[in-house]
Amino acid sequence: MSYQYFNEGDIMKAKPKHFIPRPEGAGNVGQHPVIILTSPDPNGYVLVAPMSHNHPDGTPTRRASRYGLPVDPVKGESQVNVGHPKVIHQDNLRPNKPHAAMRYQDYLALKTDIFQHVPRQTW
Questions:
Q1: Is the pTM of this model over 0.85?
Q2: Domain boundaries, the chain
Q3: Which of 61, 98, 103, 113 has its CA 20 to 30 A from that of 119?
């Protein structure tokens, strides 16, 4: 297993087909930004909050700008999934170039919003 260095609050890229469990219809979906929510567990798995302009119906989301994240001038504002975090292996994460990370206060606000939807014990 390779180790990739990243921190909670870092913004990386991942293909939804690598989420566990794999979402329906994720096979042809390209890389999307994800926010790292946890350090890797002993097996290399981390929890992430996906970002997208088109989340599946019923996904609780918040505007990315709420967490200090920039708005794309072409695509418009992204939405952050504040529902149940997604599980992914660290080897399936790709860095943003240049490196991108949330401010700590914004990261804490995101985790607070996620806790309102999903109790920590279910992660």
A1: yes
A2: 10-118
A3: 103
